[in-house]
Amino acid sequence: MFEYIKLIYYLIRPKTIFIRKFSNAMGDTLLLTIALQGIRKQNPKHKVVLEAKWHELFKNNPNFDWITDRHIRTTKRHIKPKYYLYPNSTVPIYEQVSKYVSDQDVYYPKMYLDENEIGLVKEKYPYAYIVICPHGKRKFSANRKEWGIDKFQVVRNHFSNIYFIQIGIKDDELLNDVIDARGENIRESALIIKNAMFFIGLEGGLMHIAKAVGARSVIIYGGFINKALSEYNENINISNMVDCSPCFSSEKKHVDCPTMKCMIGINPDKVIQEIEQEFKLM
User: Fold this and answer.
1) Which of 85, 184, 207, 251 has the most beta carbons within 10 angstroms of its beta carbon?
2) Per-residue model confidence (pLDDT) at position 282
3) Mean pLDDT of residues grouped by 10 in the chain (282 residues)?
4) Based on the domain organization, do 83 and 164 belong to the same domain?
């Protein structure tokens, strides 16, 4: 009842802007924080209502006034940020989303973590560690983002004197000799990344989470997506563009790639070498 009354209040209030999700994916939902920054900057006196899942991504965020799962009938005050990637795309996704709210400024994903929750994670893991997630979301991209758990294991084994914490879905296959943090909620995973030396994983939602909490990453791109469209410059971004690259398209779900030659061409030794050079790890 209270939610319904609040909804009516925002609908009849002239200075209200509604931001609508464009998918239920965690990474796409996080990208809404890009639009929120620009909207708040340009419309400081407006109320901002966010329609989205994954409410924990927006905790403490000062750039909106209310978040709801309820689908509100579209009005002229609605903004529905979205990005499109095709093999010939040239504009990065964070620039595409930023352009919905600004012709000049470019924003990046941002989460707001408070000192208390950061401190609790530091108490839980009171040592230097690297965060790793060897699996990606296959619902839309099929196998095309996957590097292979065996290759991630080689990287983990090489740095045997350093703790590794694995995050991700509870049913993900677990690497050997890691601290198991699979199945934690997304905010807990973000906090674990925040306190880490860096994150190792695949292109996708956790990469954007790392950016949103100010952490660096080592991202295995392969050749599925042109890395210039989603990479963050402070990361190590490893790609291998082959004759059929890039093959990503926003228009339809993908089927499994029978060869995966772009990912097969990335040797774990190359990843290890880049990590050692950039982070001075031996």
Assistant:
1) 207
2) 63
3) 69 82 92 96 92 94 92 79 91 96 94 97 97 91 94 97 97 97 97 98 97 98 95 97 93 91 96 93 69
4) no
Q: Which domain holds residue 252?
A: 115-279
Last residue of a domain, one of 98, 124, 145: 98
A 10 A CB-CB count for 87 gives 12
| DSSP letters spanning 106-170 | ---------HHHHHHHHHHS-S-EEEE-----HHHHTTTT---HHHHHHHHHHTTTSEEEE-S-T
- If asked whether residues 89 and 222 sit together in one domain, one would say no
| Residues 152 and 61 both lie in one domain | no
Domain boundary among 98, 127, 156: 98
Q: What is the pTM of this model?
A: 0.94
What is d(CA 247, CA 16) in angstroms, rounded to the nearest whole number? 40
Residue 63 phi, psi (nearest 5):
-95, 10
Strand partners, 19: 50, 79
